[in-house]
Amino acid sequence: MGNPDISEKEKGTRMPHRGCIAPAPSGTSRSLGILGTSLELTSYAALTGELQRLTAFGRSIVVDFSNTQIVTLRRHDAVFRKLTERFDYFVPDGMPLIWCLNAQGAHLRDRVYGPTFMRHCVMASPPPFKHYFLGGSMECLNRLKQSFLQQNPNLQIVGTRSGYFAPEAEREIIEEIVRLSPDFIWVGLGTPKQQAWIARNRDKLPGGIVLAVGFAFDVNAGTKPDAPAWMQRLGLTWLFRVVSEPVRLGPRYLKYNLLFLFYLLWDGLRGRVWSSEILGKPADTG
After folding, report:
1. CB within 8 Å of 95: residues ≥ 6 apart
2. What is the model's pLDDT at position 273?
């Protein structure tokens, strides 16, 4: 498994669990903090290349495509923070996070949006790289696999598994992943289910890159619509999704958008809004 072009020297410089991101082995990784989460300053091409290199490092590397909900959850919810404390990369998936990073001098032109990154990375990672998809319905998975293979019939999609599985099936899924030994394990179970699954199972995996991409399965399969480009540029993807699924997503986005703004104000008043360390809640800090 992995990239045959990795040098032995690179293989010997295994990256530690970074939690809130230590420098990558290449020395090129950069990050800045928002509300206690360090977010990667990267691009589609740069992140794809780095993850391809990391497939040879002999242990699982976890990448979370993080919007304001995830950053806010890590600031607000100790249980979710514990689930994600050993994740290696938090990648800015939402435009409001890009605006916050640019306010710190990041000079980023665009976010690294999970659905777009999945499409870019899969297409840029033909054999010898192998892919495994976990999440979505069977219809979604079938359409997703068909779509990618139509674009490149040589892709190695070695396994798929619906996200609607019983708890007792989890062991079987892990055994299948171990047997197939994919380089990229794409997990689209939704937040926080996908983060909990990864936290429980990352040490059972044989290695490879584990990517929490949520909505990316449905977008790339065409089973759910994505926001038009102009709404994405204006940071209104969340509004499009609320209009598309108001009952399911309306309360969630209202809660976490307001909490995100609250914590920006609260931590900003204390001079810690750009911190890479999680602070206590207002009630805990006095």
Report:
1. 111, 232, 233, 234, 235, 237
2. 82
